[in-house]
Amino acid sequence: MDVHPPHAPIHSWQDFLVHLFTITIGLLIALALEAGAESLHHRQLVAEARENLRREIAANHKIYGDNVSEIKGARDLLARDIDQLRDLRAGRAPQQLDLHWKFGWNGYSNAAWNTARDSGAVSYMQLDTIEGYSGLYMQQAYVNDAGLSILLDETKAGAALRIARDRKDPKEFEPIDIQSMLTASAEIDARLETLQSLMKSLDDDYVEALKE
């Protein structure tokens, strides 16, 4: 912003005041235009961020549905595994075991939220909007970490099967192996049940965010 000296010499206080008034008005207009342009830029930044967040939340909500189905399938398999292992522990061994530990987990994205924070768009949002997005992504991260943790631990539950020459032959397993698989299966099932409860509140957060 440049302020130029008067083109004609100032001969009186009146000339000086007129010149000062002109400069002041010019500065005020320039500042108003600059503030307006900046405000428009902030509104555009927020609008773009919210649209990106909406698309990301919608995609994560679909992934959420897939994960709900994965948990149900995994718990059904665990229930059958536990029944077989209980029978095996009690000496009622089937001719062939059919044990499966299968749990899939799809991770959630937070790229739009990170971009909104890094670009400064979040700082121009309403406080209740910020709190809503922040709470959603915190809950999402918590659920995601819990799901990944179970996924990694679930692969260890059937470790005894990898050692056995014939994983379907009950005689391949010692009592300690049977108890180890039974305990691990029960623990994973309990953690999946807890995860289901945690995911219910995440679903509520997704639905609420997509209303806006």
Please give a structural write-up:
With 212 residues, this protein is mainly alpha-helical. The protein has helices at 13-89, 111-118, 127-157, 159-163, 175-211. It starts with 12 loop residues before the first helix and ends with a helix. 19% of the residues are buried. The mean pLDDT is 85.
* Dominant shape: rod-shaped
Q: What fraction strand?
A: under 5%
Distance between the termini: 40 Å
Q: Over all CA atoms, what is the radius of gyration?
A: 32 Å
Helix content: over 70%
Average pLDDT, all residues:
85
- Count, helices: 5
What ranges have pLDDT less than 50 throughout 5 or more consecutive residues?
A: none
What would you call the structural class? Answer: mainly alpha
Number of separate strands: 0
The biggest sheet, with number of strands, parallel, antiparallel or mixed sense and barrel status, is: none
Query: What is the helix/strand order?
Result: HHHHH
Q: How many domains would you count in the coordinates?
A: 1
Give structural attributes.
5 helices, mainly alpha, rod-shaped, 212 residues
Summarize the structure.
With 212 residues, the chain is mainly α.
Layout: helices, strands, pairs:
Elements: H1 13-89, H2 111-118, H3 127-157, H4 159-163, H5 175-211
